[in-house]
Hints:
The protein has 2 helices and 11 strands; from the N terminus they run ααβββββββββββ. The two termini are 26 Å apart. β4 (56-68) and β5 (73-84) form a beta hairpin. It is 9% helix and 54% strand. It has helices at residues 2-15, 20-23; strands at 26-28, 31-35, 40-53, 56-68, 73-84, 87-97, 102-113, 118-127, 132-142, 161-167, 172-177. Mean pLDDT is 84; it is low at 11-22. The longest helix is centred in the N-terminal third of the chain and has 14 residues, at 2-15.
Amino acid sequence: MRLLKIFSMILLLALLPIKSFAAAPEISYDKMNFNFLKGYYTLTGNVRVAMDNHGYKMILTADEAQVSLLQKKCTASGKVTLNHEDITFSCDKAFAEWESNSADIVGKINFKSKDNITITSDTAQYNWNDRIADFYGNVKVTLGKNFTVDKNLKPGKKDIYAHVRYNIDENKILALDKNFDIPKITIPNFEN
């Protein structure tokens, strides 16, 4: 079995283009299986995938993940967290692409920033290049003490929104929508 794992790593490294090495994430786990036919890893137990973004890391942790180094994609499930600099998303499932620097996030989302803003929602999308987060479905916003907001966009304490757009760098809410055509966000399965 150990020989099979070593062979699979050598095979995968031989197939990767040279430029991929610079963008490869740091990965740790308790247990790993490799699907030769589909070219992805299934990782279980204390999974950690750290994707580099100009010296800053987007760190995904989970109970289980599927990682494709060739496609530069990762799905995660079970007590998932995404940490990027000064923010944290916790959720049930996530899908991250380190080439596009984006993540789709699903299920019982709880977002927190260093500026004491908390946002909960059903789904979310985050781009860690522009540091914009879009939250969808049953969105609740709790503002911190030092948060300033345009009077036209100030969330009420008990208001529930269909969509909230938040700029993390500017600590600014860009949109509060009670009615919004919510996109369907699904987490892909590498088996399909």
